[in-house]
Write a structure and sequence with these properties.
Radius of gyration: 24 Å
CATH class of the domain at 4-80 and 154-224: Alpha Beta
GO molecular function: ATP binding; ATP hydrolysis activity
Protein name: ATP-binding cassette domain-containing protein
Number of strands: 14
Keywords: ATP-binding, Nucleotide-binding, Transport
Organism: Qipengyuania vulgaris
Order of helices and strands: EEEHEEHEHHHEHEHEEHEHEEHEH
Structural class: alpha/beta
CATH topology of the domain at 4-80 and 154-224: Rossmann fold
InterPro entries: AAA+_ATPase, ABC_transporter-like_ATP-bd, ABC_transporter-like_CS, ABC_transporter_ATP-binding, P-loop_NTPase
Number of helices: 11
Length: about 325
């Protein structure tokens, strides 16, 4: 197993007035993984990133990155951390290439025009290198932010809502860029409103709300443990009660007896197997059906369910 490169222990941030933006957060990030942090607006995602990147001072707790305590060895660790912020404010009047090269110099690295060219080409920005940032589209400006964050060759990269406000095609382009960075060994932590991004790219997922980290797990393990299968079976003729062979399953009669609803399984495929058994039992009981609408729960379903449980607590 890869070594931890980021360790948070009991991290909290309380603002004047009592607002708890972070509430006793524990988290370990390992080298080479993509970690997606999901949560609604105001959940604490940006505050968490800000604390690690030195933009927010925590109220309590400890943070270690690359073996350095961020309270005392922040400068050494920060040189290995890149941040792509949520907002697009940047040096709008600068040409793209100069702005990216300047970001490299801020970290004390020697000029490297070849490396800057590689970064700009990988982000499809090379043809825009002499244009002022203000003249670019929103999606291209966001790519410039990524280029600036990569200019000093970080080992850990934070992407705060990297595809907010860009169209579907640009989002797909961003996903490809993230894959390339992973292939180069960069560890990535991203926050996103687009749950399909986490489902597509992340190795692990954390769900945060009201400053609390509700759950952290491998994506596949989370979906296996909390996932469900739902099937609606349309019957040819209505029934008033379930035969014993079907009543043993989590099935309910709906729509005046013309439909059966199954909700069960555990995200491992057991639900699909049980639906198949139910259809066989229907045939054996002489009950005809016209169709089956079956779906597996997505990461979004799990996300919404967890937030609902937390709100009700």
């Amino acid at each position: 197993m890869n070594e931890p490169i980021l360790e948070l222990d009991g991290l909290s941030k309380v603002y004047p007035g009592g607002l708890k933006a972070l509430d006793n957060v524990d988290l370990i990030i390992r080298q080479g993984e993509i970690f997606a942090l999901l949560g609604p607006n105001g959940a604490g995602k940006t505050t968490l990133i800000g604390a690690i990147c030195g933009l927010v001072r925590p109220t309590s707790g400890t943070m270690r990155a690359f073996g350095h305590d961020l309270a005392t060895g922040w400068r050494q660790a920060r040189a290995r951390i890149g941040l792509v912020p949520q907002e697009l404010a940047t040096d709008m009047f600068e040409p793209v290439e100069r702005a990216v090269a300047y970001s490299r110099g801020l970290f004390g690295l020697a000029p490297d025009p070849k490396r800057i060219e590689e970064i700009l080409r990988s982000l499809s920005l090379w043809d825009k290198r002499d244009e002022r940032i203000m003249a670019l589209s929103g999606g291209m400006k966001r790519r410039v932010l990524i280029a600036k964050a990569l200019a000093h060759e970080p080992d850990l990269l934070f992407l705060d809502e990297p595809t907010a406000g860009v169209d579907v095609e640009l989002r797909k382009g961003m996903w490809a860029i993230v894959d390339e960075m992973r292939d180069r060994g960069v560890t990535i932590i991203l926050t996103t409103h687009y749950i399909e991004e986490a489902e597509l790219m992340a190795d692990r997922v954390g769900i945060i709300n009201r400053g609390k980290l509700l759950m952290v797990d491998e994506k596949e393990a989370m979906m296996a443990r909390l996932g469900r299968t739902e099937a609606h079976i349309s019957l040819s003729s209505p029934i008033t009660e379930l035969p014993p062979s079907i009543a043993q399953y989590p099935v309910e009669i709906e729509k005046g007896g013309t439909s059966l609803c199954y909700r069960g399984g555990d995200g491992t495929g057991r639900g699909k197997a049980e639906v198949a058994e139910i259809t066989k039992a229907l045939i054996a009981a002489g009950i005809d059906y016209d169709g089956i609408d079956l779906r597996e729960s997505s990461l979004e379903d799990i996300f919404v369910s967890l937030l609902g449980e937390e709100e009700a607590a």
